[in-house]
Amino acid sequence: MKTSILSTLALVLIVGCSSTKTPAESAATETKAPVESAKVEATASPAPEATKAPETEAPKAEKVKITYSMWGSAEEGNATQAAADKFNASQDHIEVKVEAIPWESYMTKLNTMATAGQLPDTAILKEDAVIQWSTDGMLNDVSAMYEGSDSKPLDSLAYKYQGKTVAYAGANEILLLYYNKDMFDKAKVAYPPSALDKAWTWDEFVATAKKLTVDKNGKHPDEAGFKSQSIVQYGASVENLAWQLEAYALSNGGGFYNNEGTEVRVGEDASIEAIQKVADLYLKDHVAPLSVGQTDDGISRTIIAGTVAMATNGQWNVGTSLNKAKEAGLKYGVAVLPYMKEKVTLNTGGANVVFSQTKHPKEAMEWLKWYSAEENNWGLISSGIWMPTLQKWYTDETLTHKWVDNPNFPPYDEYKSAVVDYAQSSAARPASWFFTNHTTDFNTLLTSTLGDVWTGKKTAKDAISKNLDALKAANKGAK
């Protein structure tokens, strides 16, 4: 996920934890009562001259102390510490201290601490930093975190390095298609499909977008007299942030990288063609507003602003912006993404890691397992900002109803099909930073490379071909 969204979600996590009311059942059932309340009576026989040995307090076992770092203000750190205090009180062998570091200096501070050998035991880490830190030997293998549990996170939420799981996403997020139901109803156009087996092809998506695009004279792009410079309602918008664009490259049979993340594929014809099709929504089809792939506020600029009938972006928008818009009267729906050749959506989620410098990896994993449990982040999940990570919330109908049956979401059947089922389908693939190094440098360069493509000054083929060697070098860590 892009840095701006990472920051937003991390900060909401903190607030969500502070308001959590449901205790972590898994942690509570595996631990003993606090030592402080335990007393024992002497069992030795009394001496002849004594009547009874006095009661003695059992020796207190010293807790293992671990530190968890997160980005945020001191106030937000205090809120997260409140959640940690619940964990600390639930068992008698671990004590977690939270360290909040401002977002702007977060990674700089962690790098300084790493150099000094003073890293915390565990922390949240930017998605695009996980594989780099793994390459440098800074992260522990956390594959054992869910051993013996009744469920583990979806496979697409595991960060992999050399075949080992080095982090699990603290939450699940997928890319979706949002739409304004009133606009569809007014145009008498069928809603986008929420079921994967009925997903629109790209051509069907574009054709529908044309029916929903209107200029000031009521003309559509495929009608004589249509004026592309006086559009009052657009039919579609596809978020063209670099990392989200890969979904369409993959859908067209291409991609940005190979399966190992070691070779660049963005220069392949299939990848270039997919990017050009996204650009042509504005340039040739005249169904989308101009977007230059710089900001991650697409739903606010389109669906919520009331200027676009359907738009792609991440599931987190349900909680971060659409809930308030819904309260204000917006009637919106969710659907699966259109596809070119293969049906694809991307998973992502901020990474909770255990650093290799810790002396207490087992205890750090126990804390992370508790901290990321759905019960302890319920405010985030019920609001629609996060989706659960554990597979049972997707496969157990009782748990799914507990998650989805609330007024913050679209109707149950629609949301379950377009989000819950979609997220565990074969279409769901991990974003490239789950297994690829140097994605920050690559995405930054690709964003710059495509700037002239969105405005039509260059074709995707010309722009990418000219910068392909630099993009390949970025994937290798070369500047």
TrEMBL record:
Residues 1-24 form the signal peptide. Pfam families: SBP_bac_8. Keywords: Signal. Residues 41-51 have a biased composition (Low complexity). The keyword Signal applies. Residues 23-59 are annotated as: Disordered. InterPro entries: Bact_solute-bd_prot1 (IPR050490), SBP (IPR006059). Coiled coil: none annotated. The keyword DNA damage does not apply. This is Sugar ABC transporter substrate-binding protein. It comes from Paenibacillus psychroresistens. The lineage of its organism: Bacteria, Bacillati, Bacillota, Bacilli, Bacillales.
